[in-house]
Amino acid sequence: MKAIYSIVLLCLLAVSCNSEPTLQKYFVDNTENKDFIALDVSSSILNLDKAKLSMEQSEALKSFDKMNILAFKLDATNKAKFEIERAKVNSILKDVKYQQLMKFGSGKEGASVSFVGTDDHIEEFVLFANKKENGFAVVRVLGKDMNPTNIMTLISVLQQSNIDMEQLKPLQQLIK
Predict the structure, then answer these.
(1) Is the dihedral of CA 41, 137, 84, 21 positive or negative?
(2) Helix (H, G, I), strand (E, B) or coil at 74
(3) What is the CA 111 to chain-centroid distance, rounded?
(4) pTM higher than the cut 0.85
(5) From CA 139, how far away is CA 151, in angstroms rounded?
(6) How many angstroms separate the most distant Cα atoms in the chain?
(7) What is the pLDDT of residues 130-157, one digit of tens each?
(8) What is the CB-side half-sphere exposure of residue 162 using CA atoms within 13 A?
(9) Are the C-beta atoms of 147 and 59 separated by less than 8 Å?
(10) How far apart are CA 124 and CA 146, in angstroms?
(11) What gap in Å lies between CA 56 and CA 52, rounded to an integer?
(12) CB-based burial of residue 17 (10 Å sphere; 0-12 exposed, 13-18 middle, 19+ buried)?
């Protein structure tokens, strides 16, 4: 009987340990890497007066949890690594769980927007932008039950916000 329990436990462990690469795992693996700039941004960055928001804007803001940003800064010493890392991200985003909304530019430069979830219950939006002179950035917009309408409303809220630029300071290294 113990042998059966042991076999069942081993089978459960084997099934639950999915070794496929995910964007979340990629972020975790590269957060401390010197070639990357990692940043977590909460909704508090917006500095909004919530009393002035419409009901639709409040709902959109509630659906937004945080953003994770991971940027690879290209320089003369890491061009080969840039190509490898960009290929890794492209490979992860080809997984069926990431549904591509749009893509523009060429394979060497451009951007794509993908999402995880269903049309009305989006858990994550992913923006992947790369430029061969600067590097690339992956932005994960995480939330609960987001939908395209919420995202469009959130963009309008961003225009009204007084963004706390101090939280974005690490990204200035990438732009320089």
Answers:
(1) positive
(2) coil
(3) 13
(4) no
(5) 14
(6) 65
(7) 988 889 999 998 988 888 888 778 777 7
(8) 4
(9) no
(10) 8
(11) 12
(12) exposed
